[in-house]
Amino acid sequence: MSENAASNCDDFWKILFYLEELKSPLKLVDFLGNNEISKDQFYLFIEKATSYGLTLNFDEKDHDSFVISPLVWHKDFGDILLENSQYKELANDIQVAVTNSRTVNLEFVDNSKMTVFPWRILFMNESLGIIGEDIESKKIVSIELNQVHDIELLGDDYVSMYARLEIEEFIHAMRVVEGSDERLVLKIHHGKSISMPSDLLFLGHPYTTTNQYGDIIWAASVEKSQYLFEWLYSIKENVEILDPSVIISEFNDFVVNFKKAA
User: What is the DSSP string of 72-134?
Assistant: First the structure.
């Protein structure tokens, strides 16, 4: 991939990320200005998005008056991840810190301590963990909750040196290195809708497109887990797994074992 092509690819995911973060309708010119996106970058985004089937019904002649609306991702699958976890109280405290942009003091089972600005709490490698910024070293860190003995909530005056997009890319890169990242592609049958999984399941680089039959093609980078398969089972009547073959095979095994246990 050329340097220019790589830059365009990065711009695409950056702009899609900003669109997903949009909370209310906004004039396109304000959206571009707020996020330091040039017209040329946005036109290239529209071109690539169209090839994916993601359309904003955008007309270049209406640039100054065009209003974009939020892309809504529903995450109401239910937090069975927390309900079934022995670290539920710790996880809830971290969620409070993330929501209110507060730092936390973590005391580990080996009696060491660390002050962290938590960005996300996620289900990783079949366990709950924290993705955050070590206040002292300024590095992004991944911490498993089973290593945390106690937590103390601190103030909200810390200013992180990272943007959320950088945190998302860190999580994605971490899973790529570990070999646990899979690109899940689903076909949502025409006229059907699905509930998205818990926020604790990281969905990397998501996008949707529509085929000629009205089915929605949905894709995101995921990590295979028991809870991913439970989510897929909960929506199986409305979707077809198109890719990858490893998830198709393992999900079929999950369904067989689930029925045997029922």
Answer: -----S--HHHHT-TTHHHHHHHHHHHHTT--EEEEETTS-EEEEEEEEEEEETTEEEEEEEE
**pLDDT > 90? residue 224:** no
- Six-digit token pair at 189? 């049958």
Q: How far is CA 193 from CA 13, 157, 241, in A?
A: 24, 41, 15
**Position 23 pLDDT exceeds 90:** no
Q: What is the pLDDT of residue 177?
A: 83
- Asked whether the bond before 244 is cis by omega within 30 degrees of 0, the reply is yes
Identity (one letter) of the amino acid at 67? V
Contact 260/231 with Cβ under 8 angstroms? no
Give tens-digit pLDDT for 151-173: 999 998 999 988 888 888 888 88
pLDDT tens-digit map of 120-151 = 888 887 778 899 999 999 999 999 988 999 99
Q: Are strands 127-134 and 26-27 parallel, antiparallel or unpaired?
A: unpaired
Contacts with 157 (C-beta within 8 Å, 6 or more apart), sequence order: none
Distance CA 224, CA 248 (A): 11
- Report how far Cα 149 is from the mean position of its chain's Cα atoms: 27
Burial of 205 (0-12, 13-18, 19+ CB in 10 A): middle
Instruction: List, in order, residues 6 or more apart from 199 with CB less than 8 Å away.
Output: 75
* pLDDT recorded at residue 3: 44
